[in-house]
TrEMBL record:
This is DUF4247 domain-containing protein. Residues 1-19 form the signal peptide. It comes from the Bacteria. It comes from Jeotgalibacillus malaysiensis. The keyword Signal applies. Keywords: Signal.
């Protein structure tokens, strides 16, 4: 008798979880990082100059322009902050995860999606990465009031340690001429090198 009651309870819990998982307002909704990693193709990684355990992941959305990918992300999860689309780039902040959409230099119908945790963004992006996209006051609230000044000094002293984003010409240290998908024999490059 105890065994059949336990079985019924397990089945009831499984049905409840399955029902929640299929509803639009599920409390079990994947975070933005999980959504991106399961929806788009991993293209490359960029290792942090400060901490080799931290890196940004670059995904590729083929045959999807920037506006389409932007809508897909916002439909999955409402960002805490987001910029307008400007010069083929848009920046989102989702619960301390920075997501940058950039039109591919090779194909405007392909969008590159860079996902970086707050620590990577604070320690690797240069201040110019955010200019024209997110308010300086917002970045100062996240990274500290002296971040712009101290990061500018660091970038002036060591420009090779000041990352300007995956698609920005001249600021991607160690970038391969042809980026490759993770798992191939050529691991990609970056401030450090890909993981």
């Amino acid at each position: 008798m105890k065994r059949s009651v336990m079985s019924v309870m397990i089945i009831a819990v499984m049905l409840f979880v399955a029902a929640c998982g299929n509803s639009g307002g599920s409390i079990f909704k994947d975070g933005i990082e999980d959504y991106i990693s399961t929806t788009y193709t991993l293209y490359d990684t960029v290792e942090s100059a400060e901490n080799s355990d931290r890196y940004a992941r670059i995904y590729q959305a083929e045959n999807r322009d920037l506006a389409t990918v932007s809508d897909e992300l916002q439909n999955h999860e409402t960002p805490d902050e987001m910029s307008d689309i400007n010069d083929g780039k848009q920046i989102f902040i989702f619960d301390n995860v920075f997501v940058t959409l950039t039109e591919s230099e090779d194909d405007p119908d392909t969008t590159l999606i860079e996902v970086a945790e707050e620590e990577f963004a604070r320690n690797n992006y240069g201040p110019s990465f955010f200019e024209g996209y997110l308010l300086a006051s917002l970045i100062s609230n996240l990274f500290g009031t002296n971040w712009y000044d101290s990061r500018n000094r660091q970038c002036n002293l060591n420009p090779e340690r000041c990352y300007g984003g995956y698609n920005s010409a001249g600021s991607y240290v160690g970038k391969n001429s042809t980026p490759t998908i993770r798992g191939s024999s050529n691991r990609g490059g970056g401030i450090g090198f890909g993981k």
